[in-house]
């Protein structure tokens, strides 16, 4: 059990990396080294503290962020382990929002990958001081110095080694601390003899580190330039200040799997990552303000809300005010999470992280505060949900459950969105990518027993006419007793794109009694919902009822409704009907190097590039393309740009489908509807 700490003794740090660099293994090694867990779990065995969800265990990858508090030399270190896979970036953004520093994990064999550059950018935008841990120094093909070069060229030249490895790959034994010029080996990180073969290299890298660190202090610069020896404690203080101000990023080395370098990174977090109170301005006696940064839903324990306190304190069994929803919330037993474990506490103070179950109205991004001093903290910048799938229940029972279960699953992850497409009558779930939505399907099945299928959303095609035409239809039936009689003449003409659908009556001389005209209109309106090509709704058409006849005995509302419907069908067939498709406006932001490939890909999608301008470290392309070609664009763009491209898409207008494509669409639609 971790004791209560002052804000000055708390460190909130997020672990970030490209997928597979070893964040979870590092977090497990830290827990074991600090004594928070008694045995060292392994990702491959599914026994780590942070990856406890069955989906994470099955896939050997993190899907959710995990809060891992531990104690190290009198400090409480709240480590937040995050997923490395791009589809789960929403969890990364949530963790960044409540952290005071970041440890970016880089694989010594793979080097700086796309995900590394992205999380580096996220941390910079959040203004977080960073440490870099070059992991897997024991791996075959591990090369610390090559990786350091990539870090400096791809991330920043201010990333400087504070440690050098002793040995590489299977010969990796420990590291040299460049501040103290001492060597440490094994998982206990005991001091060992610094190898003579490393001495010159260590001195060279130390010189670069000292040169960068002393820039923070005029007195140190003067002494350094005059050739005076700078002591290791002074260097350490200068590194701390430079790191906090973002002028230096210390680079560490180790092997999480063999627990080498873990103690050093824990020390570095305590020394170089600022506490929540910075210069001591956090007041635990101030009114409460806290931010809910994650919600998890469970059919048995209910909703669990994870929060960070920014001022004051949250107490168990108390009342708080939800400033976003303008309502009070009853807080039950508060706890600190350690993976799936829960340790009950009486309070969580400013700077610390905790959790509580069964809040009624609170969701991710909400501020919990004191009612007498309401405040709304900045929320979380979640990624755009650009990948859409239609979600369909497998049975009537699944349909009944889906409407309540789907919002609960999406409540866990605000980067998911649910909508109902009234045009296609589909429930659409939107996420970051295909793996993201696959997890929605899996969670619905595993947590709530709901079986669903996902498929690309239907394209909401439309039908229209291209030439004016006239149509006559006489509905005449004679059976025993009263017959049926309705006779109409319609004029059908195209309207401009976006013109909708109009019905006008121009009956003169009482050719049709006025009480039957609404019935004709009703027949027309019902028929326009299913056109003559592929049963898609008819738009951009004006229908004028201009003549007809009636029978004093046999005419009726139903007869005129049928006549109106059949006359419209005849007119649509004669009006050279065509298929229309939605065209979307696209704004695509891509790196310079990918611009040509992205434009080429848009051309294959029947796209039209409207313009391009520099922006946000690359190019911003504006274009238009049919929605039918863009249903997998989130995945296509990620593939072309290696995950570096982003886009926004919104409906622009309807346009005619090219004839060769229309034939295929019509054939498929008729087959499906028949």
Observed structural traits:
seven-stranded mixed β-sheet, Elongation Factor Tu (Ef-tu), domain 3, eight-stranded antiparallel β-sheet, elongated, alpha+beta, 32% strand, 674 residues, Alpha-Beta Plaits, Rossmann fold, 34 strands
Describe, in plain words, how this protein is organized in 3D.
This protein is an alpha+beta fold. Helix content is 29%, strand content 32%. The strands form 7 sheets. It has an 8-stranded antiparallel β-sheet. It has a 7-stranded mixed β-sheet with strand order 2-3-1-4-5-11-6, with helices on both faces. Strands 26, 31, 32, 33 and 34 form a 5-stranded antiparallel β-sheet that branches. Helix 6 packs across helix 8, helix 10 crosses helix 11 and helix 12 crosses helix 13. The model has no long low-confidence stretch (mean pLDDT 93).
Question: How are the elements arranged and paired?
Answer:
Blueprint: E1 10-17, H1 23-34, H2 54-59, E2 66-72, E3 75-81, H3 89-97, E4 101-107, H4 114-126, E5 130-135, H5 144-155, E6 159-161, E7 163-166, E8 174-177, E9 182-185, E10 190-192, H6 196-213, H7 218-225, H8 232-244, E11 249-253, H9 262-272, E12 289-298, E13 302-311, E14 313-315, E15 318-322, E16 327-331, E17 334-338, E18 341-345, E19 347-349, E20 353-357, E21 367-369, E22 387-393, H10 396-412, E23 417-421, E24 426-431, H11 434-448, E25 452-455, E26 462-464, E27 469-477, E28 484-494, E29 501-505, H12 517-527, E30 541-549, H13 557-574, E31 578-591, H14 595-604, E32 608-615, E33 618-626, H15 633-641, E34 646-656, H16 659-673
Parallel strand pairs: 1-3, 1-4, 4-5, 5-11, 6-11, 29-30
Antiparallel strand pairs: 2-3, 7-8, 8-9, 9-10, 12-13, 12-21, 13-20, 14-19, 15-16, 15-21, 17-18, 17-20, 22-24, 22-25, 23-24, 26-31, 27-28, 28-30, 31-33, 31-34, 32-33
């Amino acid at each position: 059990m971790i004791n209560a700490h002052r804000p000055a003794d708390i460190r909130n740090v997020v672990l970030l990396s490209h997928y597979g660099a070893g964040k979870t293994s590092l977090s497990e090694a830290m827990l074991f080294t600090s004594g928070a867990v008694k045995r060292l779990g392994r990702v491959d065995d599914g026994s780590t503290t942070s990856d406890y969800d069955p989906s994470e265990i099955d896939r050997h990858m993190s899907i959710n962020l995990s809060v891992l508090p531990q104690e190290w030399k009198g400090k409480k270190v709240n480590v937040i382990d995050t997923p490395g896979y791009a589809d789960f970036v929403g969890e990364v953004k949530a963790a960044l929002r409540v952290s005071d520093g970041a440890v970016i994990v880089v694989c010594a064999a793979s080097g700086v990958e796309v995900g590394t550059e992205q999380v580096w950018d996220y941390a910079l935008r959040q203004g977080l001081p960073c440490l870099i841990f070059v992991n897997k120094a024991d791996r075959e093909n591990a090369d610390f110095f090559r990786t350091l070069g990539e870090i400096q060229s791809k991330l920043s030249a201010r990333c400087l080694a504070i440690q050098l490895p002793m040995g590489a790959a299977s010969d990796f034994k420990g590291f040299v601390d460049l501040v103290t010029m001492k060597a440490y080996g094994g998982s206990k990180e005991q001091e060992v003899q610094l190898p003579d073969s490393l001495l010159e290299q260590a001195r060279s890298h130390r010189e670069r580190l000292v040169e960068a660190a002393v820039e923070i202090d005029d007195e140190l610069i003067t002494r350094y330039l005059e050739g005076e020896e700078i002591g290791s404690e002074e260097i350490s203080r200068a590194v701390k200040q430079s790191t906090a101000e973002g002028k230096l990023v210390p680079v560490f080395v180790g092997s999480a799997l063999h627990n080498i370098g873990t103690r050093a990174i824990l020390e570095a977090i305590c020394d170089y990552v600022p506490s929540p109170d910075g210069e001591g301005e956090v007041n635990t006696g101030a009114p409460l303000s806290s931010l809910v940064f994650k919600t998890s839903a469970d059919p048995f324990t209910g909703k669990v809300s994870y929060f960070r306190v920014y001022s004051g304190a949250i107490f168990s069994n108390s009342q708080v005010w939800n400033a976003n929803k303008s309502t009070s919330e009853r807080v039950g037993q508060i706890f600190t999470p350690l993976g799936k474990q829960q340790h009950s506490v009486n309070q969580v103070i400013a700077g610390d992280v905790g959790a509580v179950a069964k809040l009624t109205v609170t969701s991710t991004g909400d501020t919990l505060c004191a009612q007498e001093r309401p405040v709304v903290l900045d929320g979380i910048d979640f990624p755009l949900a650009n990948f859409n799938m239609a979600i369909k229940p497998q049975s009537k029972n699944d349909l009944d459950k889906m409407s309540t279960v789907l919002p609960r699953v999406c409540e866990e992850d605000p980067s998911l969105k649910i909508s109902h497409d009234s045009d296609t009558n589909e429930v659409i779930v939107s996420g970051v990518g295909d793996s993201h939505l696959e997890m929605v399907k899996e969670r619905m099945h595993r947590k709530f027993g709901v079986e669903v299928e996902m498929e690309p959303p239907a394209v909401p095609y439309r039908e229209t006419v291209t030439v004016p035409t006239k149509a006559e239809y006489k509905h005449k039936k004679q059976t025993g007793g009263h017959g049926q009689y309705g006779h109409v003449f319609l004029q059908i003409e195209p309207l401009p794109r976006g013109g909708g659908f109009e019905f006008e009556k121009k009956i003169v001389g009482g050719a049709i009694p006025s009480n039957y005209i609404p019935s004709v209109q009703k027949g027309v309106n019902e028929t326009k919902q299913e056109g003559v090509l592929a049963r898609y709704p008819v738009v951009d058409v004006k229908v004028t009822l201009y003549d007809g006849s009636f029978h004093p005995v046999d005419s009726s509302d139903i007869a005129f409704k049928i006549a109106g419907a059949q006359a419209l069908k005849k007119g649509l067939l004669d009006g050279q009907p065509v298929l229309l498709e939605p065209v979307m406006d696209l704004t695509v932001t891509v790196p310079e190097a990918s611009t040509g490939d992205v434009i080429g890909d848009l051309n294959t999608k029947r796209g039209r590039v409207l313009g391009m301008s520099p922006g946000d470290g690359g190019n911003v392309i504006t274009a238009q393309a049919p929605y039918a070609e863009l249903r997998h664009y989130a995945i296509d763009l990620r593939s072309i740009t290696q995950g570096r491209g982003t886009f926004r898409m919104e409906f622009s207008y309807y346009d005619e489908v090219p004839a060769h494509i229309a034939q295929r669409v019509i054939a498929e639609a008729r087959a499906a509807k028949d």
